[in-house]
Batch of 3 targets.
Target 1
Amino acid sequence: MIKEITISPGEDKSRDKENFDFITFRAGETISIVGPTGSGKTAFITDIELMAQGDTSTKRVVTINGKPPTDETRYDPSLKPIAMITQNTKCFADLSVEEFLLIHARARKITEKHLAVKTMELANKFTGEKIKKDNRVTVLSGGQTRSLLIADALMIGAAPIILLDEIENAGIFKQEVIEIIRNTSKIIIFVTHDPVIALLTKKRLIMENGAVKKIIVQNEAETGAAKNLIEIDKRMGVIRDNLRAGYEITKDLLNVSFA
Ligand SMILES: Nc1ncnc2c1ncn2[C@@H]1O[C@H](COP(=O)(O)OP(=O)(O)O)[C@@H](O)[C@H]1O
Ligand SMILES: [Mg+2]
């Protein structure tokens, strides 16, 4: 059982020590990592992925439940408690979506009925491009692949820690889905440029020059602002759908008003 992971400070790109004592993420927490390109976001979550022990370029040290991970936890893929999904993550096996999910469920000895179907339904909430059970996983689009892998990680995968690196760009991720993710007991970390995702997480790390510069824990005012942002985002979604479908964008559509 993973209750928490803790990151001890490393060094920024100028080799100065990071300015925090330690950062702890607990089971059930969602976290976002923001900051300009090149600021060290991917490096930060890669340290978590590798369970770094001062042996990466950032010199950070990661502990799990207060202890350094054993070599087995670090290097045995079947024991690895962390799933990382990036823009480049692909499925290589030549299987249908259904076979892929069933094999994974069997490997994990999960016998729940209709699990593959439920996982596919969840994946289809993440993406507008419908995934069908007979689709070959190797020919899914980027957005479909990431949606399937996130659903798989949530429903079938055992990993209590899920790292998502800028995966919002393919039109995936709707608020309802983030809501589902938030209600799991996993630790989920989003590297993101999407303000909606950033504001839907309770904790936010701001990166600069390879270091964690600031940690913001959302207060009530921001939670309120986030609600408005979700409204704006939904409105943008309607406009986007109308544009795609070839309709004219009317004043009515643009006239955003909030209750
Ligand atoms: N603390 C650090 N020390 C040394 N190199 C770093 C550090 N943080 C990031 N880097 C390097 O800087 C480059 C950009 O970092 P990256 O994590 O890819 O940025 P981002 O994901 O924010 O665009 C990478 O080559 C990475 O290895
Ligand atoms: Mg990156």
Target 2
Amino acid sequence: MNTIIKTKWIITCPKCWFKKEEKIPGTECMYFYECKKCKTRLKSLSWDCCVFCSYWDTKCIPKQLEGEK
Ligand SMILES: [Zn+2]
């Protein structure tokens, strides 16, 4: 089975709507992300495991792997 994992995310800041492409360094969840433009510190929403799921257009790597099962 081929598993295609996205390792690049487009994050949209909820404050200034600045879009930034970020590359994920590993498979770990990230709980905080600082907007490169307005310096807002984004925190993962309570129902999501990490900021990727909350603000990115793609689910985090652990969730992507789960989805492939
Ligand atoms: Zn921002």
Target 3
Amino acid sequence: MNRKTAVITGASGGIGMELAPLFAARGYDLILVARRADRLQKLADDLNKMYAVSAKTIQMDLAQPGAGAAVWQEISAITPDIDVLVNNAGVGDSGDFSDEAPEVIERMLHLNVSTLTSLTRHALQGMLARKHGKILNVASLAGFQPGGPGMAVYYASKSYVLSFSRAIRRELRGSGVTVTTLCPGPTSTGFEETAKAQRTLLFRWTRPMAARDVARAGFEGMQRGRAVVVPGLLNKLLAVSAGMGPAAIALEVNRILLAPRR
Ligand SMILES: NC(=O)c1ccc[n+]([C@@H]2O[C@H](COP(=O)([O-])OP(=O)(O)OC[C@H]3O[C@@H](n4cnc5c(N)ncnc54)[C@H](OP(=O)(O)O)[C@@H]3O)[C@@H](O)[C@H]2O)c1
């Protein structure tokens, strides 16, 4: 029997951890990637038992230079053919750019931008040869914005993911490979804490969506070959309205939403 394999980065928590069982329930074998090996192994064991699929893990820091090629080498050692690549691992960081630690910025760019791009490039080769494959890149509602003062690098990195994914989707038309971009709004995961965003109005005012609902929307959109998936009605409205008004106003609103409050 021809089994399908999906690779999910950032599967040790949040949205990635909720995506994994959706694939397993559809009979996909899985390769789960993140740094926290214990959490990955527990998830893999649970999925192996519950769905009788093969779930393997790769422990790797994807925020290092060259991580895309390094993780691809490990994936290829498990299987030469993957059917789905989910580039989900990502981090944010709050604060004015001039106050952010240079190494935090560099790691964020490696993880959110370079590794995602490199892994996509590596995975595409086999997908194109087989004329079949799906790529799900996790961007953010932030990706539609003209900028995020207070989270400048994160917002820019997610605009990159959205722009890059839309462009290669167009390049790949007719190839059998689809690219879907998932753009969640605030979601209940570990993101808020690692991004130090708990004190921002954005996270205080909005009711975050459940990671499970976001994962399901992304999974279903990817299966249907959709271009962009924005989970939640309010988020959809925000995504559509993002391009309508003057950039200067959006930047002021984002400045207020992203400023830390007591
Ligand atoms: N939550 C939100 O409000 C929100 C909104 C829009 C977009 N997103 C996007 O959704 C995606 C998933 O985030 P989440 O919300 O589920 O956050 P999360 O709960 O913090 O999960 C992040 C995942 O990425 C992995 N990761 C982080 N740094 C890594 C590194 N250096 N190397 C390898 N893996 C790493 C983490 O695993 P380890 O720590 O074990 O490595 C974890 O599995 C991200 O791309 C994020 O930008 C989130």
